[in-house]
Automatic annotation (TrEMBL):
The protein, known as: NmrA-like domain-containing protein
InterPro entries with a match to the protein in the record: NAD(P)-bd_dom_sf, NmrA-like, NmrA-type_oxidoreductase
Domain NmrA-like positions: 3-294
Pfam families in alphabetical order: NmrA
The species this protein was found in: Lentinula lateritia
Superkingdom of the source species: Eukaryota
Amino acid sequence: MENKKIAIFPASGKLGGSLVKHALGLIPAHHLVLISRYPTKIPESYRDASATVRAADYDSPKTLKNAFSQVKTLFLISYPTFQHEHRTKAHKLAIDSALGSGVKHIFYTSLAFAGGGDHSIAHVMQAHLDTEKYLALLANEDSSFSYTSIREGLYSESFPIYTAFFNIKSTSTSGILIPHDGQAPGLAWAKLDELGEASALLLARFYAAPDHFSDKNRVLLLSGPREWSLNETVQALSRIVEREVSIRQVSVDEYAAQPSVESGLTINGNKMAKQWATAYDAIRKGETKVVSSLLRDILGREPEDFETTIRAIATQR
């Protein structure tokens, strides 16, 4: 019988959890291998449905050695940091481990910077570009291997990292201090769970007919339904919190010195706010404004708009 095992790694976390939830409605559970650093975070109901659960960690090479055993397709969700070199190394390790176990196709979750091209000035995008290039190199060297890189749209739910960690549950903050004036070009926000759903639908297409899957060795962009400037984004936040909120442009040093920013962008003890600030340069150059119809086409409906998504979050208790 043909081996149709599909691994999802990591299968917990926000995007991973969404992907698995939707994939379980599209692909038989006994063909899914759910891999996580913390297997206990994977719902017991998934095991009860006959999904295989395994433990592995990007930062522990020995755990990756057999993580992809008997797997032919891997959905690889990017390492959860934006430290360039460390992230690239982690991705390559997982990819090499997968290929060594016999994986023949890798879906990889990239990010919607670079404007659909192969260059970005955003630090956060560099490891993604490295990984895409590595996958392309492997596919070029071995015709039996293929990949699909999915540039997941900028999560609507991730707006705090672009707005100096503005808190919609707070009643005090009215000024957003960032190294950007808020003018267009902006960002094509996309709802995280819809990205997970669309990614699962792509995976299901491959599962159903791998030989006829038209997106092998391609980079796909799943972006939201329209571009929002940062000013428009903040105006939406104003309507949601029912008070005036505005952007004040500051220097990168002033931005990085804010306690909320310093705290939110300190990664493994490293202060990364100035590196993150390159995202504003990329936004200014139009890297994140690209609107693609692909998310809508895959979902078969109009994606949810930014304000609707954030308003629902604001009303949650």
